[in-house]
DNA sequence: GCCAACGTTGGC
DNA sequence: GCCAACGTTGGC
């Protein structure tokens, strides 16, 4: 079991849209970055992830679960790009903002804090625990 | 809206 | 295989 962080822009794919997909989930398509794709290839069904909104929101707002391992991205014919499917598990009661993460010394090594541009990131078990607590879970 | 950081492309 | 030029992302 591993932990991840999925980054989205609310204008492109919001948490409400993800929630609306329910148990079936939805493919996390559109990723065109090798590092992010490689992370998705490492995912297993049952892995958990944070749903993070960049730009306006800049906060972790939900928990998701991987429900299908990497497969070709249906939004392109380019076979280089793959994606997993994720489904919403629960909303985070208190949104954990980027500023809060930056202000938390124990999250100093978090990828979100150090490499803001990577759209699919690994999260350590320790970081997972800390962010969950900050979020009121 | 700006700009820094990063990734990708393409010429050599 | 290097590196300059360019494009994109995302925080501020």
Largest sheet: 6 strands, mixed
Mean pLDDT over all positions: 95
CATH architecture: Roll
CATH homologous superfamily placement: ph1033 like domains
Report the span from N to C terminus.
19 Å
* Helix content percent band: 10-25%
Residue fraction in strands: 35-45%
Oligomer: single chain
Write the H/E string, N to C. Answer: EHEHEEEHHEH
List the total number of helices.
5
By DSSP, the count of extended strands is 6
The top level CATH class name: Alpha Beta
- Cα-based radius of gyration, to the nearest Å: 14 Å
Question: Could you list the spans in which at least 5 consecutive residues all have pLDDT below 50?
Answer: none
By CATH, the topology is ph1033 like fold
Report on this structure.
The protein has 137 residues and is of the alpha+beta class. It has one domain: ph1033 like domains (ph1033 like fold, Roll), CATH 3.10.590.10. The chain is 24% helix and 36% strand. It is built from five helices and six strands. Strands 2-5-4-3-1-6 form a six-stranded mixed β-sheet. Strand 3 (48-54) and strand 4 form a beta hairpin. The longest helix is centred in the C-terminal third of the chain and has 10 residues, at 125-134. The model has no long low-confidence stretch (mean pLDDT 95). The chain binds a DNA duplex (12 and 12 nucleotides) through residues 7, 9, 33-35, 54-55, 58, 98, 115-119.
List the helices and strands and how they pair.
Blueprint: E1 3-9, H1 15-20, E2 26-27, H2 34-41, E3 48-54, E4 59-72, E5 82-97, H3 98-102, H4 111-114, E6 120-123, H5 125-134
Parallel strand pairs: 1-3
Antiparallel strand pairs: 1-6, 2-5, 3-4, 4-5
The chain binds a DNA duplex (12 and 12 nucleotides) through residues 7, 9, 33-35, 54-55, 58, 98, 115-119.
């Amino acid at each position: 079991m591993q932990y991840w962080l999925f980054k989205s822009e609310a204008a492109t794919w919001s948490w409400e849209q993800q929630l609306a997909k329910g148990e079936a989930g939805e493919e996390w398509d559109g990723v065109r970055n090798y590092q992010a794709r490689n992370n998705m290839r490492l995912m297993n069904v049952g892995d958990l992830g944070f749903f993070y909104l960049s730009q306006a929101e800049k906060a972790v707002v939900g928990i998701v679960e991987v429900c299908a391992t990497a497969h070709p991205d249906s939004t392109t014919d380019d076979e280089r790009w793959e994606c997993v499917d994720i489904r919403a598990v629960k909303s985070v009661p208190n949104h954990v903002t980027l500023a809060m993460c930056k202000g938390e010394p124990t999250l100093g090594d978090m990828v979100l804090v150090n490499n803001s541009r990577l759209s699919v990131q690994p999260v350590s078990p320790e970081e997972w625990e800390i962010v969950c607590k900050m979020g009121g879970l």
